[in-house]
User: Fold these one by one.
Assistant:
Number 1:
Amino acid sequence: MTAHLTPPPAACPGCLAAPINPVVDLPVDARIALSLPTIHCQGCISAVERGLNAHPGVQSARVNLTLKRAMIDADPDIRAADLVSVLDGLGYEAHELDPGTLAATQTNRAGRELLMRLAVAGFAMMNVMLLSVSVWSGATDATRDMFHWISAAIALPAIAFSAQPFFRNAWAALRVGHLNMDVPISLAIGLALATSLWETSLSGEHAYFDAALALTFFLLAGRYLDFRTRSIARSAAEELAALEVPRAIRLTDAGNEEEVAVASLSLGDLLLVRPGGRMPVDGEIVSGQSELDRSLLTGETLPVFAEPGLVVSAGEVNLTGPLTVRAIAVGQDTSLHRMADLVAIAESGRSRYTSLADRAARLYAPGVHILSALSFVGWYLWSGDMRVALNIAAAVLIITCPCALGLAVPAVTTAASGRLFRKGMLIKDSTALERLAQVDTVVFDKTGTLTAGTPDLTNLGDHNRRDLEIALALASASAHPLSVALARAARDAGVKPAEINDITEVPGYGTEGRVGNQQARLGRAAWVGADSTTQSAAWLAVGDAPPQAFLFTDALRPGAAQAVQALQAAGKEVLLMSGDTTGAVEALANRLGIAKWLAEALPEDKASRIRKMSDQGKHVLMVGDGLNDTAALTAAHVSISPASALDAARVASDIVLLGQDLTPIAEACDTARRATKRIRENFRIATVYNLIAVPLAVVGLATPLIAALAMSASSITVSLNALRLR
Amino acid sequence: MQVLSYLIPISLTLGAVGLVAFIYTVRSNQYDDPEGDSRRILSDEWDDHPKP
């Protein structure tokens, strides 16, 4: 996986005035998309565009600074790798993006539609308000009637167009016998228009056209904010997915290599997987010897020996030698898909969370209807005048209409998501913040989550200088992660490599060479004639001397210790669950001060453990990155995965951590708690406005002016309160 | 009050012009790269004649 871990500032919420359509201005037949995380100024734009346009075969290149992306239209034979090296030469870091993954026309159309409706409602509201001001300030008789008729002529078509989403949602809810927030909204808008028209036709004094439009406008603004927050998260998540361009090297019948898209592979294809490459499909090894890193799938850190006949799963990483693999399952049939069954089970068990807004609506919607109906009946019985009663019922509905309630949640989530995004967290789910605020138990996965997945040598001091020199020389010849770690540690300790002749790497076993007339081997235990250990180890044997073990532990991810400490200090219970061996898990748990841990856990174990904790009434936050965590991530109350996680794990989790550092997790819990507090505060503010205005409306004292004031004042207070979170 | 018969159509027309202008900017993707566009104006690359 490409370790592209700087938060792609592509989608910083603040700098997008209106992120309607991030990918529309590409050249129509754009073929190559590059992510440029380091560009930041006009000079960069010019340099990149000039550099790319000068490359033969490139027809046009355009940089989007907001998304930090370049879209390039080029001849079919130009490959992204060529352009990446061109930009590297200019001093800009570039990563290839999969343009197919980036295309998201559906969501863009929805956002643009919402913005249009918002604009129409806004302009209509301004015009009608202008006319209303003259009515409020004393226009009478024919003038007032004319203003009312003009207002009606503007308001009716504008609302017919702008308020469609509310009408549609309300109708969908009513058809299945539910009440949601959109039902009182639609009713209020509809009733306000109807009574105002009636009043106008009788040359009445009060018309609520401006209130109906203002209501539509404020509510649409809330919807648009909500949509924008989610589309920013979606576009950043898309970018993460697009960074992994799925390609495989297929061997043709003639024995040639060709690079093809993983999607076009079929059963029985022979594939070449180079060292460092990831298995694109499930398959069986046909030839070659190597070691496989299965940590993303099982959590084991010890590499597995690979030889012909071994069955491999998509997602495993080939470490040392080239392997030829025959595909036995492709696409949706791979082990990724089998894991999806587990996820489906976990999902059905997850109690559907009701958001604060929904809970408020459930209390609110029936209350509003009953109140409005009661005032209608009361006034009709008391005065016997249908017109007065209907007018008052409409006024009650308009004043109680959840204008501020509609803004209360989106305004806060937008502010909080923006804040967390700057810290490097991507909120994917709209209720994730509320759920994160309730968390009291945190479960960490080990490999790849608390640890960085790179080994660290632990017993450098136990070896004599001569052995270290030989080990360094042998290790330098290999790209195996243990060798790389050993070479780095030895060099840092000032060791110089010994003179060794005939160094060869034996894929799957290790490296060997000759020191003087002795044979020296560095590699797997069985190969050098030693007993294997449970800890990751490389063994060195020189001549007939007994083999020496170099022991490794997994390096901690930066911020892992601080994150665990901060979470414990906040009174949360921290657990460790891993598929790795008991020794390795226990060692890490002790190092981080985690009292409760579970080793050698199968994916089902993890998920069922979490379900059991949920049944005990705990709210579990799961942090994991592997395929074996996917079911657990889905089963937990809320879940976080690092950006380096497998695609499947990122999809299953609610929040993605963009940086390497784990410290933001503790802060995120805190921000989430404050955000939820603000949401409740906003509900209270909205209620206070209602408590003041509703009695006025019920006794018939509410005028369109009071309605307009109450509505605008509460919406503005709520938005300002939300902004305090930034 | 005769003045109203001029002023009301004028105000409505101005509102409509604003709305149409906004819709035009949305439709022609002018909000796609606000940051880049604000910097591109500083470039002296196409100062003499527009980009072909």
Note: The mean pLDDT of chain B is 83.
Number 2:
Amino acid sequence: MAKQFQSAKKKKMINNTVVHIILAVLAVIWLFPIFWVILTSFRAEKGSYVSTFLPKAFTFSNYEKLFNDTTILNFPQMFMNTLFIAICSCILSSFYVLAVSYCLSRIKFKLRKPYMNMAMVLGLFPGFMSMIAVYFILKAVGLTEGGLIKLALILCYSGGAGLGFQIAKGFFDTIPVAIDEAALLDGCTRWQIFSRITLPLSKPIIVYTVLTSFMAPWLDFIFAKVICRANSDQYTIAIGLWKMLEKEYIDSWYTSFAAGAVLISIPIALLFLFMQKYYVDGVSGAVKG
Amino acid sequence: MRRGLARFLTGIMTLTLVAGLTGCGGSKSANGVEKVRLMVWSPSEDQSKDNGEWLQTMCKSFANQHPEWDITFVYGVADEATAADQVSQDPDASADVFMYANDRITNLIDAKAIARFGGKYKDAIESTNSKELLDSLRVNNDIYGVPFTTNTWYMFYNKSVFSDDDVKNLDTMLKKGTVSFPLVNSWYLPAFYLGNGCTLFGNKNDESKGVDFGGEKAVDATNYVIDLAANPNFKIDADGSALAGLRDGSVSAMFTGSWDANAIKETLGDKMGVTSLPTFTVNGTKKQMLAYAGSKAIGVNSHSEHMEQAVALAVYLGSMEAQKAHYEMRNVIPCNTELLKDPKISADALVVAQNNTFNNTSILQPFVAAMTNCWTPVENMGKGIRNKSVTHDNAKEQTEAMNAAMNSNGIN
């Protein structure tokens, strides 16, 4: 008996060891590129080509260059542009998504089903298919010059958000209607039910919505490129990073490009770390049926 | 909260309306001075404070020369490589005056986005530029831009490794030091084929002549490149490896253009040598490597509302005075024939090398539409040679396959 027990324990240990080794190898493979970018951002040797994996010398000057050498590629300005655009469109599109999902989940109206089908079909098309049309509409309205480009980009990123309701609607569906009805009996309006009852119960999905709607404008390249054109003071970081790799700049900007790539991951990481707390709270404390 | 949102939405709508309504305005002021708004695009270096704001300086001095016009300049950033695409996408909302690389000229003409130069302006351009340079901007006898520099690649080397005589022949160089060449880049690789007698559209932009990268001469070139790649003193330049090699001393000569000149100068200092392309020896005879060459020019948008002023500004930005300032502030190599006689400029090795390459060791890079089919097959040939899938045994069929691919658009 004891022998049998021991061998089962041993078997489990071997199993665990194998699994952990495989996981460790996979983790190394997945984290390798990120690790390399971080190393490159501190590399002191110039140029885009290296013969050694580890830099021969380390320096902070790549980061300093991003913030001091602003006459050709103004990174701080691009960073602030993108941050502004991303925060605005994050707030707007989170609101759109949550509002649309709530309506579709709670209110029964005639066009509900057709609307959902239409949204599904529209969602199958890639967003940049409409890019040229969007550009000409924005141009006709006069939003493609100067500071209004920021507004144009915010509209672009948040305008279609209402179509991406599926996941949030699925979540709202799991909150019992009985709670809503109880609130209604107590004299709540629809808006109050949404803001006082449904939203506090939906932290995980709010976090998810906020994260995705922040990431999209933060990382987008195509729309920004098409709409910014020659207005270099409106460039977003995606365009700036892309510029750094052009023939004329790559040799002197390559390590700063890596530094820029590290810097843009900071807001996303911060947002995620900050929101993760609520995410976990939300999941564990959810009032379910 | 609801009221806040309503206010926000009204705000957006008002903004949109206001923005839509502006954009129309008068253009004539009382005292006969014409009000002009010119949008000018250039690479960001031309506008940067570190380089003395060449564009702003030139535009200001242009405005001073023309008191009859009250010009407001609007500056935008578009480098020569991308400006043409930006302008042809939407000429209405693009710069009146922009700088472009001549290989995009057909796109611009097809998009009806570029104006022809005529009359006294055409004469001015023709009198100050070489015929070869003008050919790079000429389509059906019309000139579509004011050239301000040439655009090609040539050889940089370490003077302590190679003597002036060595650099005349590639094979001599390979015996003395390490040479790096971007074999896998189809802007560079054709140099060997063109040097051995292959032609692209008759080397004269004649689409009907097609591509002749086949036959004995092309196979010989392929065989030469295979041997070159196998030479222990030869390194393939990819992803900036040659420049890194120059820095650590493992490479002594590389092929690139003026955009890398500063980095190389920093590395080699006084030992930097620069010259037009060397010859190479095929079957005992010396052949001259031939680069693709083009020009960068200042173009005028045919949709410009102020055509007269735009053309005058373009001609001014390409003038001798502007080119001289461009050279002094940004080291942009001039092409104005008068300016090249300036003793200070004609003593600059980089200027000499680039102009010698343009005049002697290059062909005008064809810009006919069919040229688009020529890039990938050549690149694949280079990669095949690097991977050793192209060998002496199959060189003939691989070369013929490349020639066939270059002559076809891949559809029919």
Note: The longest helix of chain B spans residues 2-21.
